[in-house]
């Protein structure tokens, strides 16, 4: 019987976009289970590191800007990181008939291209070291649905689900699990405009069986589980954390 099924003691994680929102909650959750967490952001993650320290955990801040989608290519070399959470993401809204090439490229670069090549750099290092590990990619309900006015975001999040599945297939025998979490409607900067629009907000809440939006913490615990021994035979999954929205 394993008594430390959910412990991440002795593990080293890198979480992208860890300065705020879901990434911050995931960083705090992983540290809470004992992982040392490298909190990566295009801005400093000092606030997250302080939150981790306040609960007796270990974290550090790293500047990593996916304006260059290859930014993480050398980050894993010799660093002993065995958990990667690809959380950084952007959303740009416009009707599809008006959608600009600039918005398309910006969203695809961060949400899709950077995510794939960060996974590649992580997987290369672990495989070279002969070590196992865990990847958690942050997908979306829009990995399954079309949404409206977010064509690049929807395309990129469908891609995140696909990338998760192919890497799970390729790396399962190497002891590297690759899963995704598909959040529904979570209170972060990403959904600020929607939550401020009373009509859109109440229309969305009416479709969520749980009857509320999610908190970033709702995602943090799920990520910690997927990185733990408890999930060692879970790979290629895209887990909905959405208050039942997709099932409805
Ligand atoms: P958020 O508060 O906007 O967080 C997004 C994070 O990504 C921030 O840390 C942001 O940094 C970072 N980021 C953006 N561009 C970057 C770049 N070029 N390089 C490095 N980091 C970059 O929103 P969130 O909701 O927590 O989003 C986290 C993830 O959850 C995203 O992948 C999002 O698509 C996904 N998601 C969210 C929801 C939801 O309802 N909130 C639903 C489904 C999926 P800055 O703070 O500097 O912008």
TrEMBL record:
The keyword Oxidoreductase applies. It is an enzyme of class 1 (oxidoreductase). Its EC number is 1.1.1.125. GO terms for molecular function: 2-deoxy-D-gluconate 3-dehydrogenase activity; NAD binding. PROSITE patterns: ADH_SHORT. Pfam families: adh_short_C2. Keywords: Oxidoreductase. Gene3D superfamilies: NAD(P)-binding Rossmann-like Domain (3.40.50.720). It comes from the Bacteria. The keyword Oxidoreductase applies. Belongs to the short-chain dehydrogenases/reductases (SDR) family. This is 2-deoxy-D-gluconate 3-dehydrogenase.
């Amino acid at each position: 019987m394993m008594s430390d099924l959910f412990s991440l003691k002795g593990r080293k994680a890198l979480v992208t976009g860890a300065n705020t929102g879901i990434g911050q909650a995931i960083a705090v959750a992983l540290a809470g289970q004992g992982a040392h967490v490298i909190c990566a952001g295009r801005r400093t993650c000092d606030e997250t590191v302080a939150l981790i320290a306040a609960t007796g955990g270990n974290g550090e801040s790293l500047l990593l800007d996916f304006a260059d989608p290859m930014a993480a290519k050398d980050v894993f070399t010799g660093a002993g990181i065995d958990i990667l959470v690809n959380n950084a993401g952007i959303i740009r809204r416009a009707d599809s008939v008006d959608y600009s090439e600039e918005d398309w490229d910006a969203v695809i670069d961060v949400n899709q291209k950077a995510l794939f090549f960060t996974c590649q750099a992580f997987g290369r290092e672990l495989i070279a070291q002969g070590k196992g590990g865990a990847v958690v990619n942050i997908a979306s309900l829009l990995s399954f649905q079309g949404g409206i006015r977010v064509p690049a975001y929807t395309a990129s999040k469908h891609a995140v689900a696909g990338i998760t599945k192919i890497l799970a297939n390729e790396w399962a025998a190497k002891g590297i699990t690759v899963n995704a979490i598909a959040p529904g409607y979570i209170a972060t900067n990403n959904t600020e405009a929607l939550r401020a629009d009373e009509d859109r907000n109440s229309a969305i809440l009416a479709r969520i069986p749980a009857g509320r939006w999610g908190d970033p913490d709702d995602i943090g615990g799920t990520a910690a589980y997927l990185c733990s021994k408890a999930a060692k035979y879970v790979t290629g999954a895209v887990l909905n954390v959405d208050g039942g929205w997709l099932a409805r």
